[in-house]
Amino acid sequence: MHRQPNPRHVWLAIALAIAGMILLFATRTASAAEPLRGQALYESRCTSCHEKSVHGRVKREAKDFNAVRAWVERWNASLALRWDGEEVDDVAAFLNNTYYRYPCPPTICKVVSLR
Ligand code: HEC
């Protein structure tokens, strides 16, 4: 016997595919910074010393988005990574999206409204 696929499942799969594409599109175009790239940069350069804990600790140093970005800038300088401004934005946006959740200047984090 040949089983027909359940039509509801087919529609669900189509809806999910469309939602996925919209999300991808929105993240690509609506955000100035790219948190995903920031995550890759951060994970390749910054996790050797501190684990996620430092950003989630109760007594954290960074008190707003600019402070988070300033920390990234500072580590960028002291590790001589030579990230450009966009890469610093990306890492700051990644850390902010993931841990801090401070209001982010719209020029940097347009994508925040998607949450
Ligand atoms: C040499 C070790 C080391 C490396 C490498 C390092 N960090 Fe840190 N980082 C620390 C330490 C230690 C602290 C805590 C400083 C304090 O408590 O005053 C810290 C704190 C921070 C904070 C502030 C956390 C808070 O309390 O809000 C940020 C943001 C941060 N680091 C980002 C980065 C980024 C981005 C990179 C990669 C470019 C990086 N760090 C690489 C050791 C390091």
Number of domains: 1
- The residue ranges in which pLDDT falls below 50 over 5 or more consecutive positions are none
Could you tell me the strand content as a percent range? under 5%
On the 0 to 100 scale, the average pLDDT is: 82
Give the overall silhouette: elongated
Rounded to an integer in angstroms, the radius of gyration calculated over CA atoms is 19 Å
Total helical elements: 5
Secondary-structure class: mainly alpha
Level of helix content? Answer: 55-70%
Bound molecules: heme C
The SSE string, one letter per element, is HHHHH
Largest sheet: none
Number of strands: 0
State the end-to-end CA separation: 45 Å
Structural features:
Cyt_c-like_dom_sf; binds heme C; 60% helix; heme binding; mainly alpha; electron transfer activity; 5 helices; 115 residues
Summarize the structure.
With 115 residues, the protein is mainly alpha-helical.
Q: Could you explain how this protein is built, in words?
A:
The protein has helices at 7-30, 35-45, 53-56, 65-78, 85-100. The protein is mainly α and 115 residues long. The chain has one domain. Helix 2 crosses helix 5 and helix 4 crosses helix 5 (85-100). The radius of gyration is 19 Å and the shape is elongated. The mean pLDDT is 82.
